[in-house]
Specification:
This protein has a domain at about 75-145 and about 210-370: Rossmann fold (3-Layer(aba) Sandwich). The protein is about 50% helix and about 10% strand. The chain is built from 18 helices and seven strands. It has a five-stranded parallel sheet with strand order 2-1-3-6-7, sandwiched between helices. A hairpin with a 3-residue loop joins strand 4 and strand 5 (about 215-220). The N and C termini lie far apart (about 100 Å).
């Protein structure tokens, strides 16, 4: 049997410390760490990442959603998928209406669950702008929406503190971008595949830049990198492919939307629809799967709402759409001005509160040039 060691046996025992120059060693480790940190930061900036790009996610969405409860009952709120998220400039809204909207759209998300969430919120009686890509709105998949609602209801203090710390660090460090962490880059590396074997993933990698208040744009690198644009467009084409939407689904979605909108209007709020631009093979697929007359026009008519569809305006059909699905940053500013002006001219809810803001604003020659007559 092994013998036990008594406390008396340990008396006088000393652990010898190696004779290492600890201060110089610590300085060397700190120096190497700093060199690697600076090198990685420079490498990420060379790829097109920038400090101040705050990333996006559930915590950012939750922070904006809580503003509804803390603010007035009649805010401007935007929901939808990545198109209305990327294609809307919040400062342009503020310039034209005097108020900055709360941005609650999410990438890859069906807006219907958040429509019902707001319909159930007795505090909300504002203007709700629903950005509609038919693929996401007329879908059985709710996307990330239920997840963010659940997260908002159970966010812990440690998660909230972690979010604030991450956001503060992201203002100064580009390499914190979640799409370009080391292990993510390894996972997405285009490893050489055997002939006629499809790769193990089909994903979009980084596609957006996000700033305070969830002001989001298409990542500027996609505007100048042909390979990234090709990759993103291939992903959209693959995702959007499929059979034509079932008439029964259009009936169900329209009926549910109408019921939710009626609840918002009963409290003094209003709801409008915006169909942002798309182009190329994406638009061709959308026209085939979601015929406008049977889908978009039906939704707007059944809900008794005003809608802005980009195909009704010549100028909106000429914007730059690098990946065939999202506008460039400059075009997003112009599109926002165009659709907000249409809303101001046609939606009584906005006219009553903000009509004088746009009527009294001096229109510059550039703005006059941007405005185009409505298509017949």
């Amino acid at each position: 049997m092994p013998s036990s060691t008594s406390s008396s046996d340990l008396q006088g025992f000393e652990r010898s410390v190696p004779g290492i120059p600890w201060l110089p060693t610590l300085a060397l480790v700190a120096s190497l760490t700093m060199v690697l940190l600076v090198g990685w930061e420079l490498a990420m900036r060379n790829l097109g990442l920038q400090p101040g790009d705050l990333d996006d996610g559930r915590a950012y969405w939750t922070e904006e959603r809580r503003k509804l409860n803390a603010g007035p009952r009649d805010p401007l709120v935007i929901i939808g998928d990545s198109r209305i998220l990327f294609d809307t400039n919040l400062e342009t809204w503020k310039e034209l209406t005097g108020r900055r909207p709360i941005q609650l759209a999410l990438m890859g998300a069906n807006a219907e669950p958040i429509l019902h969430d707001l319909a159930s919120d007795e505090h909300f009686a504002g203007l709700l702008v629903i950005g509609t890509a038919e693929f996401s709105y007329f879908s059985h998949d709710a996307g990330s929406m239920p997840d963010v609602i659940e997260y908002m209801n159970r966010e812990s203090p440690s998660q909230r503190i972690g979010h604030y710390l991450y956001r503060a660090a992201s203002r100064h460090l580009a390499f914190l971008d979640s799409n370009y962490t080391l292990f993510t880059l390894i996972e997405r590396h285009p490893w050489r595949e055997r002939e006629n074997v499809k790769g193990p993933y089909l994903d979009v990698w980084k596609i957006s830049e996000a700033y305070d208040g969830r002001q989001t744009y298409l990542w500027s690198r996609l505007e100048r990198d042909a390979e990234l644009r090709r990759h993103a467009e291939e992903v959209w084409v693959d995702i959007f492919a499929g059979e034509a939407v079932a008439a029964e689904l259009v009936d169900e979605v329209s009926a549910r939307s109408r019921a939710a909108i009626e609840r918002i209007r009963a409290r003094g709020g209003e709801v409008v629809w915006v169909r942002p631009p798309s182009a190329g093979p994406i638009l061709a697929t959308e026209r085939a799967r979601y015929p406008r007359r049977e889908v978009w026009d039906r939704l707007v008519r059944d809900t008794g709402s005003f809608g802005v569809h980009f195909e009704d305006f010549p100028a909106m059909r000429q914007y730059e759409i690098p990946d065939s699905s999202h506008l460039s940053r400059a075009s997003a500013v112009e599109f926002t001005e165009a659709y907000v002006r249409e809303l101001l001219e046609n939606v009584p809810w906005l006219q009553e509160r903000h009509g004088d803001d746009v009527r009294n604003r001096k229109v510059t020659p550039l703005e006059a040039h941007r405005r185009a007559p409505r298509a017949p």
